Amino acid sequence: MLRGLKRLNRYEKRLLRIAKLAGKLAKLKQIGFSRRTSEGFRFPIYSLELGTDQGLTKHPVGITAAVHGLETIGIQILLDFLEYVVHPESTGYLPELKKGKLGLVVIPIVNPGGVAAKTRSNPGGVDLMRNSGIDAVKPLPFFGGQKFSSKLPYFRGHGLEPESRILFRTMYEKFFEVKNAIMPVLDLHSGFGTVDNVWWPYAYTQEPCEDTFLYRKLASHLRENCGHLHFSYGPQSESYTTHGDLWDKFYDHYRDVHSDHSGWDAKFLPLTLEVGTWSDIKEEPMKIFSKKGIFRPAEHNKRDTLTRYRGFLRDFVRIGLSQPKDWI
Ligand SMILES: [Zn+2]
Fold first, then answer.
1. What's the pLDDT at 286?
2. Which domains does the chain have, with CATH numbers?
3. Mind giving me the DSSP string for 29-89?
4. Which of 66, 213, 217, 285 is most buried (CB neighbours < 10 A)?
5. Could you give phi then psi for residue 95, rounded to 5 degrees?
6. Do 266 and 324 meet the contact criterion of CB atoms below 8 Å apart?
């Protein structure tokens, strides 16, 4: 049943090592539990905060992974990145964390039950990225989310699942009241297509979100100033529309909370990095017959795959050093 348990333990141990490496700059906390499995087991969910109190309260940046339990490549990319930026002797060391100019709020495994059971969904059979309750305008049939059965993929669930609530609460507590800040939050996924996509809201409609102009500016900064040319940037609905995207909900909720505050000068900017792993099918054609193979890169280029994202993630989190006025 829990074929992924060893792997989950390995990631958690590595997270602990990263927390130790960061020393005083790290706060590792258990922030809740997963949905209970049919055997009655609940998995702890952890957050790791990196930075000083000032960095975390004034310039927080978020990174999350493994909302889908099969997409463990995102966890590995994230853990590799964290080591890269906290190790004092690393070429990627981020001094801004120590100086209080930036804080990282990380939930490396949002869906530990899915990782342990090797399922996309949580232990209740719910696809967390279909779980927000938002109805899409023209969703893809079935893939866009379904309410028929938890035994079928893409089940939307009834009400927010524990994992979704924990993610929402963390966003609310760490980002929603911060003033005069640019707060990018990146959620790591894998599996869709052959290129790496960086998506911003919305997933539920092709209507542009209010911050489209700013998102486009961030994309051209990452592309032109930082040289991350092989990513494809755009609203998620350009690729497909779905019901229940959690980031749609959080993004709209943030806007609702501040709709009465004229001149509110902070920006909460969720984005999704969808690591395109289908290109591996050319190298390992049998993968297409394996249930989870298409969500993971080929073994021999795994190390390259993981380290390839360090620079991108580093430039991404450094966007949190800027202020809204820098992007006008
Ligand atoms: Zn995913």
1. 54
2. 2-321 (3.40.630.10)
3. EEEEEPPPPTTS---EEEEEEES-HHHHHHSEEEEEE-SSTT-THHHHHHHHHHHHHH-TT
4. 66
5. -65, -20
6. yes
Q: Using CA atoms, how far apart are residues 17 and 87, in angstroms rounded to an integer?
A: 11
Q: How many Å lie between the centroid of ligand 1 and the Cα of residue 212?
A: 22
Q: Dihedrals φ, ψ of 64, to 5°?
A: -135, 155
Q: How far is the CA of 262 from the centre of ligand 1 (A)?
A: 35
Q: Helices in 99-224 by DSSP H: which ranges?
A: 112-117, 162-175, 212-220
If you measure from the C-alpha of residue 41 to the centroid of ligand 1, how many angstroms do you get, rounded to a whole number? 23
Other CB atoms within 10 A of residue 109 CB? 30
pLDDT tens-digit series, residues 251-309? 999 999 999 888 899 999 999 999 987 655 455 555 545 555 555 555 556 666 778 89
Which two tokens mark 253?
A: 């909720």
CA 264 to centroid of ligand 1, rounded, Å: 32
Ligand 1 centroid to Cα of residue 323, in Å, is: 30
Lowest mean pLDDT among 61-65, 275-279, 321-325: 275-279
Contact 79, 198 (CB under 8 A): no
Alpha-carbon gap, residue 114 to 189, rounded angstroms:
14
Which residues neighbour ligand 1 (ion) by CB within 5 Å? 68, 71, 189
Question: Ligand 1 centroid to 260 CA: how many Å?
Answer: 34
Q: Nearest CA to 137 among 241, 212, 252?
A: 241
Secondary structure letter of residue 127 according to DSSP: -
Give the whole-angstrom CA distance, residue 166 versus residue 183. Answer: 19
Distance between CA atoms of residues 201 and 179, nearest Å? 22
Describe the crossing of helices 73-86 and 310-318 by its angle, rounded to 10 degrees. Answer: 70
Centre of ligand 1 from the C-alpha of residue 190, in Å: 6
Q: How far apart are CA 48 and CA 54, in angstroms?
A: 16
Q: Report cis status (omega within 30 of 0) of the bond before 240.
A: no
